[in-house]
Amino acid sequence: WRRDLADTILSPSLPVQVLLLLGSNIRPDHHMDAALGMLKAQMSMVAHSPIFQTPPIDAPGTPDYLNQAVIICSRIHSDELRRQLREIEGSLGRIRTEVENAPRTIDLDILAAADREQRIMGDWPINPALNSLHHAAVPAAMIASGWRFPASKLTIGESVRLLGEVPDGFKQLS
């Protein structure tokens, strides 16, 4: 049974590079630093983008977010990685509510995974924000601009250009 368990967590086609998005609008400086530190301690970090201050989406009156993209090297399947990310969120006080855009201490999302040729892998989840929302696409393009979507064949960098100008209040901090 141990072999079966290992096969559900590990895969011979791995490691892959996984693009993550970090976001916070409750004590964001503290929570972003803490989450980045926990990711570095638990995973092999390949790259990280600058931090961006971004306005909230469909949540008037809530504080701006800090967002940052990171690339990690992963040898585990997406479901196990998502579980590990939820544990980090929980340890930093993340409480999930029914309000989709509620303020949060930390949000750790898988945006996509890519193979060695920078092709985004269709057997991993592809977060729709990656090619539709500036707060995810712009930081991601800073470190994974050449990653290519399987269906459209566009790169992340090309998708960002198609999004047009960033919203008011969107700015690079570091």
Give a quick precis of the structure.
The chain is of the alpha+beta class. The chain is 32% helix and 21% strand. Strands 1, 2, 3, 4, 5 and 6 form a 6-stranded antiparallel β-sheet that branches.
Strand content: 15-25%
Mean pLDDT: 88
- The helix fraction, in percent, is 25-40%
Structural class: alpha+beta
- List segments where confidence is low: pLDDT < 50 over at least 5 consecutive residues: 1-10
Q: What is the makeup of the main sheet?
A: 6 strands, antiparallel
Our count of helices gives 5
What is the 3D shape?
A: globular
**How many β-strands, per DSSP?**
6
**Head-to-tail CA distance between termini:** 47 Å
What oligomeric state best describes the polypeptide chains here? single chain
The topology string of helices and strands comes to HEHEEEHEHHE
Please give the radius of gyration in angstroms. Answer: 16 Å
Structure notes:
By secondary structure, the chain is an alpha+beta fold. Helices cover 32% and strands 21% of the residues. It contains five helices and six strands, in the order αβαβββαβααβ. Strands 1, 2, 3, 4, 5 and 6 form a six-stranded antiparallel β-sheet that branches. The longest helix has 15 residues. It is globular, with a radius of gyration of 16 Å. The N and C termini lie far apart (47 Å). The N terminus is likely disordered.
